[in-house]
Design goal:
By secondary structure, the protein is an all-alpha fold. The protein has nine helices and no strands. The two termini are about 25 Å apart.
């Protein structure tokens, strides 16, 4: 278990990072604005479930193995990028009526969850983040390094659930307000699609270093 000093520094550093919107937050915001608060919260759970997989992989050394292989990193990177671009294009060309007061043709919550888990899992930059970030707060004198990394990783995920949920609730409220305007449905669709495609392009351009 990390000592109090390392733990306090970790929580402070994590809070700063989590309050700075990144790709995961943009994805959650897009889902929340497009599908509503409930879908946004489900996407939060999905992203953090994927992050838990990255934490486990990082503590077991699996992430380091993937990141050490340029081919493996490239394959995972382009798979994740292609999936995000696919989601964006599907949103652009979806045949659905313009929405007014209520979200229409909403995806099922299980589908939103599985989609979010896949997006998070296929993001090698997340694996890179945990491999680079967690060891900085590990103290070998406090016992098992693997155990400390796992505890810190789980703590980061719990903090992320709180901060990301706030983004989801706020974005869901904004989306509900926007749907009060006649042309908001089309605007939401194109904005959400653009965010997904933008995230996909950013993922494709990511390099295999912190």
């Amino acid at each position: 278990m990390p000592d109090l000093t390392h733990l306090s520094l970790f929580i402070l550093a994590s809070a700063v990072l989590l309050l700075t919107p990144g790709p995961a937050v943009l994805y959650i915001i897009a889902c929340s604005v497009d599908q509503g608060r409930r879908a946004g919260l489900v996407s939060v759970c999905a992203i953090e479930a994927g992050n838990c997989m990255h934490v486990i992989a990082a503590t077991l050394g699996l992430s380091a193995l993937v990141l050490s292989s340029a081919l493996a990193f490239t394959i995972v990177k382009y798979l994740g990028a292609a999936y995000l671009v696919y989601l964006g294009l599907r949103k652009f060309f979806a045949r659905e009526p313009v929405r007014a007061a209520n979200p229409g043709h909403s995806q099922s919550l299980p589908r939103i969850f599985s989609q979010g888990v896949l997006v998070a899992t296929l993001n090698p930059k997340t694996a890179l983040f945990f491999v680079a970030f967690l060891p900085q707060f590990v103290d070998p004198a406090q016992g098992s390094i693997t155990g400390q990394m796992f505890v810190l990783g789980c703590l980061f995920v719990l903090l992320a659930v709180v901060s990301d949920s706030l983004y989801a609730l706020l974005a869901g409220s904004v989306g509900r307000w926007l749907r009060g305007f006649p042309s908001a449905g089309r605007l939401e669709r194109y904005a959400t699609g653009s965010v997904f495609i933008g995230l996909g392009v950013a993922a494709a351009l990511a390099e295999g270093r912190p």
